[in-house]
Amino acid sequence: MKRIPLVLTAAVLAFSLSACGGNQQTQPPANQPATEAPATETPPTTAPSGSYDAATAETMYKNTCSGCHGQTLEGAVGPNLQKIGSQLNKDEIMGILEKGKGSMPPGLVTGKDAENIAAWLADKK
């Protein structure tokens, strides 16, 4: 009888950890050349918080962040981000992405991907 709660607890813990840590990269293996993006892709968008590619930012967000912050930024386990740009600027959001905050671990998104997502989120007002 004690095995069922233990197995259930382990399953819930595994699911919770995997939801926030799904940092999936879409880069080809080192021995294969990268393919060019299709011509139908949305061009980068320039906005008040800087230049960023909104389509790429949204895709990265959905692959990496939506498990905790919701598909439409509504918040789930993590806070609501729908109007985060009215509270934090791009640099402040970058700091959270780099260092983590609360139960969010640092470094889920790094480099240019983090800058792109930070700029995209900074425009959510």
From TrEMBL:
Residues 52-125 form the Cytochrome c domain. One of its GO terms (cellular component) is membrane. Residues 23-48 have a biased composition (Low complexity). Residues 21-52 are annotated as: Disordered. Coiled coil: none annotated. Binds 1 heme c group covalently per subunit. Residues 1-21 form the signal peptide. One of its GO terms (molecular function) is iron ion binding. Keywords: Electron transport, Heme, Iron, Metal-binding, Signal, Transport. It holds the Pfam family Cytochrome_CBB3. This is Cytochrome C.
